[in-house]
Prior knowledge:
This protein is an alpha/beta fold. It has helices spanning 27-43, 59-70, 102-112, 116-131, 140-156, and strands spanning 2-7, 12-18, 49-57, 78-87, 92-101. A 5-stranded mixed sheet has the order 1-2-3-5-4, with helices on both faces. Strand 2, helix 1 and strand 3 (49-57) form a beta-alpha-beta unit. The longest helix has 17 residues, at 27-43. It is globular.
Amino acid sequence: MFGFFRKHHAKNKIYISDDNEPSVLTKKLMATIKNAIDTSLEYEDFARMTEISVTLTNDAIIHEMNRESRGVDRPTDVLSFPVFDEDFGVGRAILGDIVISYETAVRQAKEYGHTIEREIAFLTVHSVLHLLGYDHETSAEDEKAMFDRQEMILEIMGLPRKKETEKSVK
């Protein structure tokens, strides 16, 4: 297993690990993940110091996790595990865990005609919004609110979605 800990912004501790053999985690991908998290939190005006972990994994592992956590017997692209626990010892908000299937992200990037970095950014932003309490599966209004936020954050990052390839994560 290949893992990193780096403090991106002074307020955010972002732990990134890679369960893939061989590792798929590059410096560029790490920077993309950190930027997606920081930009999402800044866009949402989340001022607390935070802690988030991100794991890149494969379809087999995320399939098992999806079955165990959601009762859905298939792989998925991303799972979010919100914690939101205030660590009063250091005043850091532990938001939760993000698990991304790198295999699925590669397929989706090819399908939608963009880079793996853009796909990982999209999945990371989507998941951070879940960690903050947004849910696109509760109503059409909630879905629109969440997806509008995703679009704005990705535009701020310089990664707007091509309108002809628009998709949603379900």
